[in-house]
Amino acid sequence: MYKTAGEAKQFIEEVNGLVPDSDKVDAVICAPALFLSQLVISSQDSALQIGAQTMSEEDEGAFTGEISPVQLTDIGVKYVIIGHSERRQYFNETDESANKKVKAAFSHGLTPILCVGETLEQRENGETGSVVEAQVEKGIAGLTEEQISRLVIAYEPIWAIGTGKTATAEDANEVCGIVRKKVAALYNEEAAEELRIQYGGSVKPANIVELMGMEHIDGALVGGASLETESFVKLLEAGSHA
After folding, report:
1. 84 is catalytic
2. What's the pLDDT tens digit per position in 28-83?
3. How far, in Å, CA of 26 to CA of 28, rounded?
């Protein structure tokens, strides 16, 4: 929940033209809903894609304040974050609601970015693997193999978000590997390899190269470090050379 409409427009204008070619890196800004339409228009001549931070699983109806996948696709949004830890923590979203939203996103041509991750208490209790596996299994239940190949899963350890703490590259890679192995068990190896797995949690220019060098980390879900033009572009440049 950052930036005014004017600041968001200025950011996109500064970033346009600096985004690496789309064959090297996929760059997506997931912005507050108020700005989405404007940002889609402002980014039309660049490789930058626009995503939403959340959405309803319903196409329409008496759900005051919600935004539907139909409305997002109508204005040209391409991606949507599903089940972010803050949505789970503050707005009571669950694995089951995330699953409904993932299915709704696919049914309307959106690419869902499904978030999974453990709390500090769960990590200290040695429950990271079981927690993440359960979130993945429930979150992707009922998807087709083809949908799995287009899905993005973001591993974001809750204890590393906005705290300045970062999982080591090895730790992040281990859990991303758990995600891929779980998907392979539920579907097959080919689908698991096609799946794009991101790491999120205090990612910044100083550590993204090491993170992106890991076997199972295909990208990054970035928070604060993506808010400034210079930092954002550095992240993209690092990703394009990974």
Report:
1. yes
2. 999 999 999 999 999 998 889 999 999 999 999 999 999 999 999 999 999 999 99
3. 7
d(CA 13, CA 36): 14
| Catalytic residue status for 241 | no
Task: Provide the whole-model pTM.
Answer: 0.95
Q: Which of 108, 118, 156, 216 is catalytic?
A: 156
DSSP state of 156: -
- Can you list the pairs that 164-171 forms with residues at least 24 positions away whose Cβ atoms lie under 8 Å? 164/202, 165/201, 165/202, 166/201, 166/202, 166/203, 166/207, 167/199, 167/201, 169/207, 169/210, 169/211, 169/213, 169/214, 169/217, 170/214
Q: What crossing angle do the helices spanning 205-212 and 229-240 adopt, rounded to 10°?
A: 20
Chain CA centroid to CA 2, Å: 17
For residues 236 and 25, is the Cβ–Cβ distance under 8 A? yes
Choose, from 57, 84, 118, 133, the residue flagged as catalytic.
Answer: 84
